[in-house]
Amino acid sequence: MRIGIIGGGAIGLMFASRLSGKHLVTLYTRTEQQASIINHDGLRLIEEGESRLLDSVMSKSLDEGITDHDLLITAVKQYHLPHILPAINSLDVPLLFLQNGYGHIAHLRKLKSPAVYVGVVEHGALRHDANTVEHTGLGLTRIASFKGELDRLSLVNEKIDGFPFIKSGDYRSMLLDKLVVNAVINPLTAILQVKNGSLITNAFYYQLFQELFDEISGILELENKAESFEHVKSVCMATAGNRSSMLKDLEKGSQTEIDAILGHILSMAEGKGKTVGLASSLYKMIKGKETQGG
Amino acid sequence: MRIGIIGGGAIGLMFASRLSGKHLVTLYTRTEQQASIINHDGLRLIEEGESRLLDSVMSKSLDEGITDHDLLITAVKQYHLPHILPAINSLDVPLLFLQNGYGHIAHLRKLKSPAVYVGVVEHGALRHDANTVEHTGLGLTRIASFKGELDRLSLVNEKIDGFPFIKSGDYRSMLLDKLVVNAVINPLTAILQVKNGSLITNAFYYQLFQELFDEISGILELENKAESFEHVKSVCMATAGNRSSMLKDLEKGSQTEIDAILGHILSMAEGKGKTVGLASSLYKMIKGKETQGG
């Protein structure tokens, strides 16, 4: 398959390196500089301390225009999506969106393509530099259909070592599950500046964890709260030693995904007339920190 | 006057150095080591970049027992007060308490002394080491009577350069004013890790500042909210470049005064059946950080 991947961040680089073994991959980057480095020096994938250089990935800056592909994967942050949409709005090619949060769904309704899929990435990935990515945590990618038949997307049936795909029947619950995990773990770890596991092991942080989950699950009107709570907790424990992406973003002084995550939930709360407390305070704390960093 | 001062922290060292010019000062420390350093090397006061060595302060460890004084000043943190009380419970000497918060008032009712005063310190002081203190912000000390006539405390009528005393008619409102200032500024700056001024200049932090003030002034049932709000804001701006004591405590991994400050307010809220939100979240964040540090 000819696969195009938009986005030269951690997720874009990881997908490009993982898929390049079986597919003809073109990686679209925001800057010409990154594309030129990748074309010149290759793409480096680090995994369990071992580094592999892959020279089959071709890279272009997005400004050069998108060529013909059998699948186009969008791996930019949700807050960059509006800048990308004009380039893909009118394409007929199958599209796969890997954003966190739920807010991007509103954009997808306007796309011309008859086959639109959404995915949730449960791998850990860390971008070291323009052409180096580390696969820090082996997980999986869940894919669901937003429009069109899921089985027409051959990717979901492929076997790629250390990079499994799982079909999901309902994009809403798939995205909501991830949203709840992100909305509870990311803001708390970012403000408290702790690894994920501390939210469970520190008795005071665990109280905040429970309160935030209660608030968010109430706003999202989750049907099975107890099960969802156990899921968030299990993710927290499975990634106990990790620093969340939001914590890392704040440390780097980068923009976070707070608007796509808590921001989205808070605007839902407003729409439903629900009261918010901790979620709203954490939102302001993160936004304030972003202002400071920028 | 023969003045005894209990506590070898920033406030104790500052009072000892400032009062030693006119009075015979004995400083009671927790450790023998600190007393021995002060007796051996003198007490060093740094002010506006200039350092002065004072050799007239005598120091003893509290375990050696308290000798006869005309005034005994207690300058330990509120959470250390219970350990000090047995040594002063049955003294007849006038007592002055310089703790933050309001919770120490409950202890004062049990004292035998007929003259008990409370003070609020609005100076900035930083302890560099066992016998060095820097007077970082010139302010004043408010003193009110808890028991006995205020004018019998000659200290309140003294003129000491750079170290003024002001009489306050009502200890309750004096302590509450300081409590509100501490309860709003300290926890927010400690969790957000910013200097006091950021709470006003950062638009998101200012929203949190307003919300926390609203919550606290509601719990304390302040009579003149608008005036009190302006007071807290003016303190924040006057100390814009300062790092709050709670922020410094967390950075050092020390215990903070959160129980004396927000803890006291939260237990009042519970007693009155008032709902709490941000105050309670901040309390848990600080307690969690203390647990982490310890």
TrEMBL record, chains A, B:
Pathway: Cofactor biosynthesis; (R)-pantothenate biosynthesis; (R)-pantoate from 3-methyl-2-oxobutanoate: step 2/2. Gene3D superfamilies: N-(1-d-carboxylethyl)-l-norvaline Dehydrogenase, domain 2, NAD(P)-binding Rossmann-like Domain. Keywords: NADP, Oxidoreductase, Pantothenate biosynthesis. Its EC number is 1.1.1.169. One of its GO terms (molecular function) is 2-dehydropantoate 2-reductase activity. It is an enzyme of class 1 (oxidoreductase). InterPro entries: 6-PGluconate_DH-like_C_sf, 6PGD_dom2, ApbA, Ketopantoate_reductase, KPA_reductase, KPR_N, NAD(P)-bd_dom_sf. This is 2-dehydropantoate 2-reductase.
